[in-house]
Amino acid sequence: IITGLSHNFCENPYCSSVIPLCFAGINTLCARNRSKSDWYHFSFGEHVCSNCFESLNTNTPKHKSQSVSSVWRHRMNLWRREWLKKSSQLGRRRILNAANFLAAQMLPWWLKCNKCSQWRQLPPQTPVGSTKCNFRPDKFTCADIVKVSDAPCSWPVDERVKIVISKPQDFLASMHTHAWLQASPALKASSSYGVDLAGLSPDPLPGFTIEDEKTIPPDSPFRVFEEDGAFSPIDLHAWKDFHSLKCHGKLYSLYNLIWNSSIDFLCLIFRCVCVGVF
């Protein structure tokens, strides 16, 4: 933070005590953390300055002639078309605005260190989806992003993390846009229903390549291929042998869903962590 400058704080009561920092940075006039104008709130400690937000708004005349803004508006339009292709008939009536695009494409990723259990924000456009990188929940450590210290885990904790941990229930309530589950194993199985109805995001993880997708076997969880819901119900013998299914049905469904994504491997705890189940 540069001293000697006045700052406007977020008007949202959830993070009114935190100096906002623009996570987008897509406009040459981006205010970063020195804006005296309005801020657009997205969640605890995550904001976009008015210059970046309005540059995506095609109805703002002063941004129409800027070439950088035009590139990002073009990307937003391409993203919107892909979403509409995979949405239901009801979802296609929705108007995906700049806030939806920023939340889906520009929000930074956070990972928890496997050594010190501290949460760290990743650099923009980090390839979190590649199986060959360390930016994965089962591999990540502070040393992957802190390069200027011999003790990376001793690096100060982000103040925004403290706010989220102290108020975990308020975090979802503070979000400006709907939270979509990204890179879910259920995407291929339920995409025909429309991703918007299933709460799923059609956007791939950053860095997820065609080679990574080829490692996933083309299996179907349904008895009849391409007929969603065509499966045999569990018989009475299965209920007696696996009585815990009655109490933890959703947990077993998630377990089987992850196992179905790679049926040749055991469904161990680190695989569940990678896809965000635990």
UniProtKB/TrEMBL annotation:
Residues 104-161 form the CW-type domain. The keyword Zinc applies. Keywords: Metal-binding, Zinc, Zinc-finger. One of its GO terms (molecular function) is zinc ion binding. It comes from the Eukaryota. InterPro entries: Znf_CW (IPR011124). This is SJCHGC07350 protein. It comes from Schistosoma japonicum. The lineage of its organism: Eukaryota, Metazoa, Spiralia, Lophotrochozoa, Platyhelminthes.
